[in-house]
Amino acid sequence: xxxxxxxxxxxxxxxxxxxxxxxxxxxxxxxxxxxxxxxxxxxxxxxxxxxxxxxxxxxxxxxxxxxxxxxxxxxxxxxxxxxxxxxxxxxxxxxxxxxxxxxxxxxxxxxxxxxxxxxxxxxxxxxxxxxxxxxxxxxxxxxxxxxxxxxxxxxxxxxxxxxxxxxxxxxxxxxxxxxxxxxxxxxxxxxxxxxxxxxxxxxxxxxxxxxxxxxxxxxxxxxxxxxxxxxxxxxxxxxxxxxxxxxxxxxxxxxxxxxxxxxxxxxxxxxxxxxxxxxxxxxxxxxxxxxxxxxxxxxxxxxxxxxxxxxxxxxxxxxxxxxxxxxxxxxxxxxxxxxxxxxxxxxxxxxxxxxxxxxxxxxxxxxxxxxxxxxxxxxxxxxxxxxxxxxxxxxxxxxxxxxxxxxxxxxxxxxxxxxxxxxxxxxx
Length: 428
Fold this sequence. Notes:
The structure is a single chain. By secondary structure, this protein is an alpha+beta fold. The chain folds into four domains: 2-92; 102-191, 2-Layer Sandwich (Beta-Lactamase); 196-265, Signal transduction histidine kinase, dimerisation/phosphotransfer (DHp) domain (Helix Hairpins, Orthogonal Bundle), CATH 1.10.287.130; 272-425, 2-Layer Sandwich (Heat Shock Protein 90), CATH 3.30.565. It is 51% helix and 19% strand. The protein has 13 helices and 13 strands. A five-stranded antiparallel beta sheet has the order 2-1-5-4-3, sandwiched between helices. It has a five-stranded mixed beta sheet with strand order 7-9-10-12-11, covered by helices on one side. The chain has a three-stranded antiparallel beta sheet with strand order 6-8-13. A hairpin with a 5-residue loop joins strand 1 (105-109) and strand 2 (115-118).
């Protein structure tokens, strides 16, 4: 189309020269024609410039020749850019949705440490908020010395450090940095609080089992080493009760460990039946009164509902027995113990409350861990294995129920078994 501009210019100058020739002013006419054509071109270029500056507000200039070619080329480029921009925006949305679904905190960092993007999980783990923290240096937000050292060491793919979350002192994070888009860095943070807790519990479990079994085995071994076929009957008579006691202690411990393992792995199926809670609690209280530790405790039973409980009778009896027997064993003589059964709009409850010494608050969270004891020496004297509350917790979990523990030093403890309302049935 550019040749049309040449012909237009030649035709304009020629026509102006012919008209000027008629008036004997050919050069002046041709000069004015060129000037007018130049002004027209300038006007067209100005329209093009205004359109390019604000294409949404101004219309595309209508022109012929080279100006039309330029406008068409620009429109084609703009169309291609819009299409490319839509694709990039779609990819970005996918990336953001994908990273938002990840359980890890992701932070994209420039070479100098400035943040250029982060996902929503990074807010709760690292306290990095997007876009508020755009171009903020990550070292100003995460001041843990181990992280600072990792950042200063450069890109070390695969290396990680454990740091405390800036938002929660009880949350432990695994943080590592990998190379990203050439010179950039990708910070990945993962909450490992539960993992570390489970590792600690596993180490404690192995140590506690070893300790618990070592004591009775040491007693048995010590006695056996001192005995021979010539040992007097009096010596055997004094040792046999102790050996029998320690053997029974190991037997109880192993039995409870096996029971706890079956509960955790689900090897034993639940045999649900309608349980008469009043009869169950009365029977367990009678058994508690036969314990050696029972010293005329004042056990009161409060029944506020006639409903039965839909559950595995053997397992529920085991759980309630553990709670009531503990209340008898670990409270002073003639201490008052309240046992309550009631149902409300939120569920069904069996409560065991004692008014003994109580438990310090920092112990409550770990009471249901295996072998965890508030007073290890006293628990061993009472013959406890440290597995009772762990068994109670797992039995309740198998019934979609939960165990809540409230206690205050000097005022006693309250153990609440909360069952779903769907587990209650009207008495037959």
